[in-house]
Amino acid sequence: MQMDITVIVCTFNRSGLLQTALESIAASEVSPGIAWEIVVADNNSNDGTRRVVEDIIRRRPGRFRYVFEPCPGKSNALNSAIAAAKGDVLAFVDDDITVHPQWLNALTSPLLNGPWIGSGGRVLAEWQSAPPAWLDTESWILAGPMVHFDLGLEAGQLHETPVGTNMAFRKTVFERYGGFRADLGPRPGSEIRNEDSEFARRLLQAGEPLYYEPSAIVYHPIPENRLTKDYFLAWWFSKGRTGIREAGVSSEVRWRVCGIPLAYVRRLIRWTIQWMFTLNNKGRFGCRVCVWKLFGEIKEFREASSAPALPGQASPVVIPK
Questions:
Q1: Percent residues over pLDDT 90 in the chain
Q2: 179 with 72, same domain?
């Protein structure tokens, strides 16, 4: 049977949230004549994840398939799900979201009926408690840790990378450009991410056309336990490491202090001084975040500089014919 769309959901030890996400996706309103499936990639969970998926497979036969990926790392699970997917278009969401009933139609229509090879939609925050006084809800500081993406209500060509919990690509792009980088993406003990944006950036740099569809809406919860300074600082520290790991370390850096590029030292001094002397609570925390992000960049730079160079990092995806 020809399959038009595969929805891919990677999961790790979130069986409670997963059930809500899968029921929401399964309730998507898809145009008549469109054949679609949902592939759940279990990244070696040790909770009740498999039971949750097997239960929904029994209740909704023909809609769901289960893939088990034992190698830790979200990118490994993503690449296994891509190889197992039967759809011509692959849509990606996380295991803790809910979707608008028209989400799947809106996200994939440009790829099924137009010249686009990829698409992204809006990711809207669902606050489960009031934001703390130190957090500026209009600041860039919020967007990453809270997984928020909203470029407005006008559809059109996308010139920046979509968010991994609301993006879709034609399956053929993975044959041409490879899969998600295995050295990026969260895994137990590491919050280094960017596996989604790095892949989309590869396509944009190659001149491939991506589409922004604002009516493709995913709702992402903001749980109270994430609204702590420690969580934000740890996230931005890992974000700093991620940026260096994705881009790699240039051997052309000349001026260093204790092995650290002079530019990083200057920025670290600047943001530390601003952190110390900023009186506004939200502004002060913003400066502190910049310091922690620089710490992450410096740590990754030092580790990358001392490690042997690796060949191409893009993980290959073997797609059955």
A1: 78
A2: yes
